[in-house]
Every structure is written in structure tokens, then in C-alpha cells.
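Listing S7. Sequence submitted for prediction.
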Amino acid sequence: MSALRTCSVLLTAAALLTTTLSTPAFAQTRQKKQANQQRGEQLFDKLERMTPEEREKALSQLPPAQRANIEKRIQNFQKLPPAQQERRLEQLERLNSLPPKVQAQVRRSMNQLKDLPDDRKMAINRERRNMSGMTDDERQAYMSTEQFRSRYSPSEQEMIGNLAKILPKNE
């Protein structure tokens, strides 16, 4: 395919996607998905804190596919070391305490991080660990440095900034 034809196809696809993404139906679907994801996270948090008997009773009321998904998440969570479990629960609490629009930005960044090549994931996760010891003001100052900006693309910088919103608050 010629470069001109490829460009034309991409522009047409982008126009169609933009039109689709801006429709009220798509916005409602996206909002419903985000609301379901938040409810799922809250349900997971509640289930994780229950006794096995309480959890079994609560899960028995769910559709089989949803139950299997939640049970798998709980099993994976329980395999983590206690300190990592606690960090995950704290991050979830911080995420749920954010305004809905900010929660959506953080979740989008989480999903984008999953899709990155392994070397970029490692670099961003290393940066998050480094920033977890900083106060919010220190994080902002650090992210404004040329050293930081030269290491990450603008989309990675935005991702790191969004993910920093659920890092521990240091005083």
C-alpha cells in the first residue's frame, strides 16, 4: 500500500473513531464501564476483608463468570506477600477517594502501562518506586526537571503523573 493510501486510510479511521467516541451512546457505555470497574474494585476490597465463609456466601449470589473472575483475583492477591497486599489495598483506597474524573485518568494510565513494552514498564515502575518516598510537592518539582522530561515521552510523563496520584502521601 502506498504511503498516501495508508495516510488516507488512517485519517478516515481516525475520523470514524472520533465520531464514534464523541457520541452520547459511547460516552454512556464508557461511564457505565468505569462505574462497573469501581464497583468491582469495591466488591473485591470487601470480599478480601471477609472470612472464607462470608466470602463464599457473598460469591454464591454472583453470576458464574463474575464469580470466577473475582475468585481468581482474590487467589492472585492472596499469593502476594503481606506487605504488597497492604500496599495494593492502600492504593485502591486512594484511587477510590479521588474524584470520578481523576479515577478514570488513573485507570486509563494503569491500562496504558500494561500495554507498554517490558523495558518501558520497568522504567516507569522504577520511577514510581523512586517517587513513592517523595511528598506531592517534591514529586511535582522532580517531574518538572529536564532530567525527568528527557527520559520519558509526553504520554509516559502524563501516565507517571496520573499514577503518582495513588502513591502514598508523604509528609
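Caption to Listing S7: primary sequence and predicted C-alpha cells for the chain studied. The chain is about 80% helix and 0% strand. Residues 1-27 have pLDDT under 50 and may be disordered.
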